[in-house]
Design a protein that fits this description.
zinc ion binding; five-stranded parallel sheet; 16 helices; EC 1.1.1.23; six-stranded parallel sheet; single chain; NAD; Histidinol dehydrogenase; alpha/beta; Rossmann fold
Length: about 425
């Protein structure tokens, strides 16, 4: 079901195997690109009419209205298990507390005479959140995207999510939206939802930024509309990499790998270990535990195509491999996990020790679960408050301060051949 790669075996091309694990990008599908471009153009031209037609075509439901009413939200909320509501509220509080520490303050400095410089932080005014439907509902995605926006001070949060065949939205998603403080919810998914948020329709407001994960059509639509609006990132399939030594519990390691493999067939679950005995035990555990899981078919294909157990010669090599792969989720199950933190350079979220499993971060601890995938942790960060604020520079010089520096500014402007720039300074000192 899952391959074992031994870096000590000279006959194996380890780099080739690692490259094959990473070669699962969703973003190079020519036919899908063309289709998404057509959908976006149609939405721009025909607005609500086109959105409703695509909802009928792709979701199999003919809607009279896309907006979710307050009555629908209250009905969904009241029908949820009270224990789930309590758990979602506590998760929201944890997410709020964590992200509130990311807030930055505007600042002004005037340490030079006649000069004031500064930076002003303002929240993005309108944000769109995409919440997938697909094979499973994700109330946690609602919290992870909406709460940091609320912390940042976003005035209006618009959520889109695809309806089911009966024209309704999953009650857990609606409950999470109410708890998170989402302002408006629309029954629309796919590329058409992204286009509607980017350009606006008669019903759906145009936003300034779109966040949230989705399938290939959503990912490509976000990439196409970037520039008309901002986006968070292009989210690929889910990933986990576990670094483990001989002290790790193979049952725990296998369970955590499976927690990501069940997302979809393109998900990647990798173990890098210094212990061949552990590698063999984890392989047995993966097969044993998979038999008891509801998404067995998805898991088996995911592990077969994009899973691996890599045996490294030591922990230094294990960390180097992890940094090259740059996983979305990195679990460190070694005797002294804190000693390894300084070596880890590329990872979306880092889970330390055997009692910090990946689902803890997905649902409850507080750090965001919207994370960079497909090796983009080399240059992207988790979703956070900074994604929902923008900065403006403040510049003030009095006459004396400008006069002191005018010749230098004129010299630079003239070196670029921009005489009007130079003249803008000169006219003030005639």
């Amino acid at each position: 079901m899952i391959k074992i790669i031994n870096t000590l075996n000279q006959n194996e091309d380890v780099q080739k195997e690692i490259d094959s694990l990473l070669n699962r990008s969703q973003l190079e599908f020519g036919e899908v690109n063309r289709l998404v471009e057509e959908i976006i153009k149609d939405i721009r031209d025909n607005k609500d009419k086109a959105v409703l037609e695509y909802t009928k075509k792709f979701d199999g439901i003919e809607l009279k209205s896309m907006i979710v009413t307050e009555e629908e939200i209250e009905e969904a909320f009241s029908s949820c298990d009270p224990e789930l509501i309590e758990a979602l509220r506590e998760a929201r509080d944890n997410i709020w507390d964590y992200h509130s520490k990311q807030l930055n303050n505007s600042w002004i400095q005037n340490d030079k005479k006649g000069v004031m410089l500064g930076q002003i932080y303002n929240p993005v005014e309108k944000v769109g959140i995409y919440v997938p439907g697909g094979t499973a509902p994700y109330p946690s995605t609602v919290l992870m995207n909406a709460v940091p926006a609320k912390v940042a001070g976003v005035k209006e949060i618009i959520m889109v999510t695809p309806p089911s065949k009966d024209g309704k939205i999953n009650k857990h998603i609606l409950a999470a939206a109410k708890i998170a403080g989402v302002d408006k919810i629309f029954k629309v998914g796919g590329a058409q939802a992204i286009a509607a948020l980017a350009f606006g329709t008669e019903s759906i407001p145009k936003v300034y930024k779109i966040v949230g994960p989705g399938n290939i059509y959503v990912a490509i639509a976000k990439r196409i509309v970037y520039g008309y609006v901002d986006i968070d990132m292009i989210a690929g399939p889910s990933e986990i990499l576990v670094i483990a030594d001989e002290t790790a519990n193979p049952e725990y390691v296998a369970a955590d790998m499976l927690s990501q493999a069940e997302h979809d067939t393109l998900a990647s679950s990798i173990l890098v270990t210094t212990c061949e005995n552990l590698a063999n035990k984890v392989k047995v555990e993966l097969e044993k535990q998979t038999e008891k899981l509801s998404r067995k078919d998805i898991i088996e294909k995911s592990l077969k195509d994009f899973g691996a157990i890599i045996i490294a010669k030591d922990l230094d090599e294990a960390v180097n491999l992890s940094n090259e792969i740059a996983p979305e989720h990195l679990e460190v199950m070694v005797q002294n996990p804190f000693e390894m933190i300084s070596q880890i350079k590329n990872a979306g979220a880092i889970f330390l020790g055997e009692y910090s499993p990946e689902p803890l971060g997905d649902y409850f601890a507080g750090p965001n679960h919207t994370l960079p995938t497909s090796s983009t942790a080399k240059f992207y960060s988790p979703l956070g408050v900074d994604d929902f604020v923008k900065k403006s520079s403040l510049i003030y010089y009095d006459r004396k301060a400008l006069e002191t520096n005018k010749n230098k500014i004129i010299k630079i402007a003239e070196s670029e051949g921009l005489t009007a720039h130079a003249n803008s300074i000169k006219v003030r000192f005639k």
